[in-house]
Design brief:
By secondary structure, the protein is mainly alpha-helical. It contains 6 helices and 2 strands; from the N terminus they run H-H-H-E-H-H-H-E. Helix 1 crosses helix 2 and helix 2 crosses helix 4.
């Protein structure tokens, strides 16, 4: 899980395995966020979960996750699992990611993951070992100093 090639700005690019392990850890954090957000929604909906409520619930969870990821990525460039694995999200030129680019990455990550992880498999063929959603959003994951 050593870092791979150098990013254009001189930042080290982590290996694919390190990024995937960080995503595995991230799934535990996401599970906890969705659990508590779901409990709050369930309480507010008085236990009703049919018809339009179900679609509202799904959209609510999508928004909650979006707020979590966009806030973390645009304020420091990392989530707790990324911090643990010493990873940071930056723009292609190595500068911090703004809210707009973080929103774009979040939106592009969904099809990347849901289409049988095709956007993750992309990294095995990409010249810089970047995931497809990072390539399209103009972002990259690099090693963090601390």
């Amino acid at each position: 899980m050593d870092s791979g090639p150098q990013a254009p700005s001189g930042l080290r690019v982590p290996g694919i395995g390190r990024r995937l392990l960080s995503m595995l850890y991230e799934s535990l954090v996401v599970f906890a966020i969705l659990l508590f957000a779901g409990l709050a929604f369930h309480g507010a909906a008085n236990g009703r979960g049919s018809g339009g409520t179900r679609h509202a619930f799904q959209f609510y969870l999508f928004l909650v996750l979006g707020i979590y990821f966009v806030a973390c990525w645009s304020r420091g460039g990392r989530t707790l699992p990324m911090q643990t694995w010493k990873l940071r999200l930056v723009r292609g030129d190595g500068l911090p990611v703004g809210v707009g680019r973080a929103l774009l990455r979040y939106a592009l990550a969904w099809p990347s993951l849901l289409l049988f992880g095709g956007g993750l498999w992309w990294a095995f063929f990409d010249r810089d070992r970047q995931f497809l959603h990072d390539r399209l959003a103009g972002t990259r994951i690099v090693m963090s100093e601390g």
